Amino acid sequence: MLVEMVCVPSDVIWDITYACPLRCIHCYSESGRRPTRQLGAPDLLRVADALIAMRPSDIAIAGGEPLVVPDLFAVAERFSRSGISVTL
Ligand code: SF4
């Protein structure tokens, strides 16, 4: 009998951007003080699809300041339509 074990994450935290209007000294990601390297919408959705394929139950979108990402809501909707809980 072949038993296959597949490890999948139950929760994912995606730092979707390092862009932030603030520069808090306690920021663990040094957001606002490093290049933002923002992905465009097609690449963001490709990453979203790769995360969906891992079938996590929850995805937390963090950063940086996720609300400065123009396509944030399209990404969140992609997760939500896939039955994955999304938090910011
Ligand atoms: S991401 Fe949060 S902690 Fe980091 S600089 Fe921005 S507001 Fe401050």
From TrEMBL:
CDD domains with a match to the protein in the record: Radical_SAM (cd01335)
One GO MF term on file is:
catalytic activity
Start and end of every Radical SAM core domain? 16-87
InterPro entries given in the database record? Aldolase_TIM, Radical_SAM_PqqE_MftC-like, rSAM, rSAM_sf
Pfam families from the UniProt entry: Radical_SAM
Alphabetically sorted, this entry's keywords are:
Iron, Iron-sulfur, Metal-binding, S-adenosyl-L-methionine
Q: Does the record carry Iron-sulfur as a key word?
A: yes
Matching entries from PANTHER family are given as: PQQA PEPTIDE CYCLASE, RADICAL SAM DOMAIN PROTEIN
Name the chain's protein: Radical SAM core domain-containing protein
Q: Which organism is it from?
A: Couchioplanes caeruleus subsp. caeruleus
